[in-house]
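Order emerges. One example.
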Amino acid sequence: MRFLKTNLFVIVLSLFAVSLNAQNRVAEGNTTTISISIPAQPKAINPMIYGQMLEDCNDKVIYGGIVNNEGKENMAVTELLRPLSIPVMRWPAGTAIYDYEWRKGIGPERKAEKEYIWGGLEYYTFGTDEFIGWCTRLGIEPYINLPMGNNNTYQHSLGNALDWIEYVNGSAQTTYGALRAKYGHPEPYNVKFWCIGNENYLGNRFHKGESAEVYATNLAHWAKVIKSIYPDLSLLGVGYKSDWTKVIVDKCHQWLDYVTLHFYYTSRIEDKAMIDPAKTLFAGALVEANIKENIAVLNRANEKYGRAENPIRISVDEWNNRHSVKNGEKFYFTRQDDRRQYDVVTVAAMLNIFLRNSPYVAMGNYIFPVNGHGLVKSVGEDEAYRSATYYVFELYRKYLSGNLAATEIVGPGYANARLGDYSHLDGDVAARTRELKEDLCFVDAAATVNDRGELCIAVVNRSHDKAQKVELNLPEGYKVVEVVSIESEDITAANTIDNRETVMPKNLKVKKQNLTLSPCGLQIVRCVRK
């Protein structure tokens, strides 16, 4: 009976995932029609979906990026990040948390030590106080990730987590709050977001992979204790495939605020060009199918456990398009390859997914803001420039906010496509979702209505070799007043240290409802009432 119930649950989830994607339909012809409507009961978009993540992964993200090895801030990097109005920053991030010892990153004495997760050195000069101070100066909400491991060390224990939270949020009358005050920070930082663990279903040098049941049991204990002392914190637990997530929320629903998901596109690159480009450019469809399965789990749990007013939601805590570059006869993963025009599409398509699945997706943290896969590239210790993908976040933060508008897309693409055939995707992906079939239009879109009543539409061309004509069917009373594009004649174009303005936004003179998007192009359309 349990087997039958489980399989019925899987079938229901799969049908749910497919039905929510039914607004896209492949049709013959050379023009894509995007019909936009404004719902009577709008869904609010959480700006936290535009968040970022910092991790000392030996790729100059923190050291050599945000600061030098001695902790001196690269002000050029800071000033380029400032206009992005980054809402939240996750640190010390993902896998690196299992080798990060927070006590070594406070106080006047800091010592560099070998870092065993990613290699290189952890200098500890950008520690807890420096991270929070940097976030504060930039108006960013800090988010700290706690290491919940199973190697029986105090470093990975609940006691250590409580010590760290007390150092950050405790009053100066507490043991660790007094230590913070001694080091020059008498007032509590009041950091709200704390995640318990990272990818606990996987193993690493310091942690053995766990089952959902084991992780959920440990998480319930940790979360209950933390919330009993700090009831106002927002706690994140590790989500995964929807079956795993169901176990987590059933066990921990009364203490959690978010479950986390991780998704990584993979582009295989030879001579700057993608091999099998459709498997990169359409991978978002498989991401969205897995997000929707998790949404179904959370909706059921929120209803069952009385969380309708304060629902558990999703944070896509890690995501990007990784490059695997051919060197000789083999492909090698690297974070140092330039962000190119086709990366503009992968970033925009993911942000469209977050928008379309608002308010269920309530946070997203891109890796990374600096250097490795970064929005900004540092040059030495006092210089930096913008990568191609920087401008995607800049435009979305400026235009795509407020409430969600509905989009229906009909146009050329791949009809009844098996999702697994159109994705190079790693992360929290259930095998069954690879078997789902959907219509994949070349054009992707999401739309919002801001507090001024402006309708903004993000339109993406996922074809790597063909321009796409688009006709917008706007709600009655709206007209196009502005179109901003990020497009290049060469989809491998990149901003480099020698040519820093190759890929940049342009304001188009056309202000009509008919668009033409270059291959791998992005256009943002702003509309107002006539």
